[in-house]
Structures are given as C-alpha cells and as structure tokens.
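Quick one, T. Sequence first:
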Amino acid sequence: MNVLKGIAASSGIAIARAYRLVEPDLSFEKKTIVDTALEVERLQAALNTSKTELEAIREKANIELGADKAAIFEAHLLVLSDPELITPIENKINTERVNAEQALKEIADMFIAMFEQMDNEYMKERAADIRDVTKRVLSHLLGVQIVNASMISEEAIVVAEDLTPSDTAQLNRKFVKGFTTNIGGRTSHSAIMARSMEIPAVVGTKSATVEIQNGDVIIVDGLKGEIHINPTSEVLDHYEKEQIRFEEQKAEWAKLVNEKTISADGHHVELAANIGTPDDLEGVANNGGEGIGLYRTEFLYMGRNELPSEEEQFESYKAVLEGMNGKPVVVRTLDIGGDKELPYLELPKEMNPFLGFRAIRLCLEEQDLFRTQLRALLRASSYGNLKIMFPMIATLDEFRAAKTILEEEKQKLVSEGITVSDHIELGIMVEIPSTAVLADQFAKEVDFFSIGTNDLIQYTMAADRMNERVSYLYQPYSPAILRLVKMVIDAAHHEGKWVGMCGEMAGDETAIPLLLGLGLDEFSMSATSILKARSQIAQLSKKDMEDLAEKALKMSTTKEVIEAVKESIV
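Structure tokens:
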C-alpha cells in the first residue's frame, strides 16, 4: 500500500476505483505504406469506431446535460461524415503512400489553419470541431483510449494533473465519489467545485497520476489530506468506519438545517452558499443556506462552443431566484480570465492573466456580451430577491461605467413593457487591495460589498495561489489581510451598508471567530460548510470574538494570530 500526502480540499472520505483523467500520448512516426488499401481500411475502421462512440456520447449528453450540450457532439458527427475532409485523407494515403495517422494530421492541420484565419465566428468554431474529432480518430488508429469525464458510468475517483472548471462541471455526481490532483490548493477552482459537489477531494499530491493506475482501489481522505492506494483490508476496514463516523457527525450538524445562525450571545449573521449552477440549489436547501452569497455565472459559459443566449441565461437565473423562495441571491456577473478561459472568445494570451484582461475589464470592452447578461438578469429580477455584483472592480470609474450600462438596459426593458424589479441591490467584489483601501469612497455609491478573499490574499501578498512554491505566503489570517477586511467592514457600516465574504476564508474554522469579531454580516461558502459553521458560531460569543479580533489586528505574524484563535476557543 502506498500513501500520498496532499491538501485536504473537500471534507469526507471516498473509497472507489481510480479513473485516470489524463491526456493520452498520441505521438507517432511518419511511415511509408506498401498496402494502401489496407491503410484506408484502418482509417475507415477508426472513423466508424469514432462515430459509434460519439453517437453514444450524444445520446447520453442529451439525456443528462440537455440538447445544447448534445449539439456539440452532433457537430462532431457531421465532421466525421464530411467527404471534403475524409476524401483528401484517403487520397493522400493512396498517392503519397503515407500511414493513415500522417495523412489525417496533415489534412486536418490544413483545414484547422484555414478555418482559424477566417473572420466568421461560425467557421472559426469549425476549427475546434475538427481538432477534437481528429484527436478521437487518431486515438483509435493508435489504439489509445481517450478519457471523457462526462462519460463515467460507475462509481469512481477521478485522478488528474488538475481539473479545469469545465472538467469539474462535466463530472457526473452520481458516479464520481471524489478526486485527487497533482497540483492545486484549497482555493483552486477544482477544490471549490469539489466542495460545491459535496465530494471529498485531496489536491496538490504532486504525483497522483504517476503513482495511481486505472482501476486501483483508492481512498480519498478529505479530512487529513491523504490518498491510500490499494489499501490493506485493515486500512479499508478502518476507513469504512471513519466514513460512518463522518456521516454521523454530519447528521448532528443536520439538526441545525432550519435554524438561524446565532452566536452564543444572541448576535445573528447570515450563512449563504456559493453556487455554480441551478443544480446546486438542492445542496443549499439540504444544508440550510440562508441565501446565495455568490452565483458564479461563468459556468453557464463553459463547456460549450458558443456564448449562452439571453433566453438561456434568463431561464437559469429565474430558476435560482424562484428556487430560493425570496431569500437573497447575489449574482456575480461574468468573471472570465485568469485560469478560467472560453476558447470560443479567442482572448489574447497574456504573460500574467490574473492581473490582465478579465472579469469587469473584459465586460466593459465586450459590451454586447455584458449587455446580454444584464438583460437576462434584469428580466429574471421579478422572480426573487436579486442582488447583482460586479467582479474585479479596481476604480470607482469602472463601477460607475458598469452601473450606467445596467441602467441603460433596464430602461430599454421597461420601455419594451418588461417587468423589472425596483429593489435590485448593486454591489462589488472587494478583491483588489486598492478597492479595500478606498472602501470609504466606494461605500457611498454601492449597496453592499462582498469580499473575495481568494484573490484579495494573493494580490496583497503578491503570491500566486496556484503556485505551490509560494503557497506559504497564502495567509488568510495575516494581520495585513485582517486589517483590509476591517477597513472594508468599517467603511460599509459607516454608510449603513452590509458586507459579505464569498472567498473560501468565510468557511474556514480558524477564520470564522475572527470574522465574527470584525463584524462581518454575511458568510458565503460551499453549501457543505454551512452547517459546520453554524454549529461553530453557536458556541462563540461575539463580544469575546471582538476582543480577539482587536488583539489580532495588532499582531505581527500569521502564526501569532492562529495561536490566539486556538487559545480563545478552547
């Protein structure tokens, strides 16, 4: 038995066989062929196998993901049947006597280059289709299996180098019991999605894809941050009992599902949930969420070949607002960039994407995209308690520009006779240090703040949260971070505004006592963290936590703050 150490990213224990989500080696050598007819037969066999595979994927996608996702695979099937692509490949095999792999690559590369140079967006999308399809055909020519996370059909633990947001969005919750990755931390998007999906995860193992083979029995210990590979019967028995104990603890927390979040001395705070799709609402309800503190709308845009329509977005926002039955729903406008890409937008590659053309910066320039989203949100506003939040705001001018566009779209809708709520609160994410420092000025114009600590910490400490070599600088409890949080809360309260926090720090058991003492009004976290946090807050005195926070703000190091928290809640 082998044990890997990593970072406990999502609580719980999972036991299942490994499913390696690793890109296959599709390298090959150019060869001269004697029997060209046999080589064409090889090509046709690979094409037919690919068609059968794609038809099955299309049907499954249609049932489980909807017609829009299934349409992607319909387009791939059309490429496989296109004589303008297939005939030149066969001709190249027959005339130049090259192997099918070489002929496929040369012709596919020619079409991809041609389509990518066109101005027409539809034709550019065909380049992506050809790239995906030829990769599949090539895999069958080489006898190599292509993995597809959405097609997992039995209980499994996913093993990968990393999982992109679109990868995690495609995971089937029914079968994926947990996952482990080589890289990442508690605030990586794969970890955040794991908590949203309520599955155990261990990230940052460095060597999971090397040590674990397909079909290995593995245990994901999302409590200690350990991966056990092919465990002994004794270890397996131990973890099966640990699973039961963890479920019993969850059952105790579940008794608080319908309770308000009130400290030991009677102070009420709101515990809300971070979600990515309307499908997450069940988890919010099951975990007693008092609202949605962050609806990450970018997942509507991912895992597809084109932008979602206004109507499609409207239906998603409406579903969440209706599903929350009048409880507050904070929707973050499109936050793309950094490690979240949309291939069909063809954004320029940047040296430092986290500090680049992303979020509100993208939306203010690509206004058609932004206005479509705002129209969908405004149309949905009459179905619930909507609050709109702009991400990555660095200056008051950016906020004012975004607000102006929102007001313009609102007036257009009203003039069209469409009902729009008159009670939409408008806020910003505070995730840039300059915004925190200028919070007193922002507070005069916004309705609320939501502190995005995942980025605020990395920008303040100048430490990429995805870089394991500087991960020691990712310090949520640093006095520097606590002072910025305090600055934002004080500025908002001075203007009679409320402050939430939607970064991962909001659900951190060491941070919660400090945040309660600093005066945070709303804690938004992964739904699975809510009941545990409610149980913790019920045992804390706000007055005592205010004293703790006051001391922490005067401390010099993170270590001192952590020790002070431990001493205060013994």
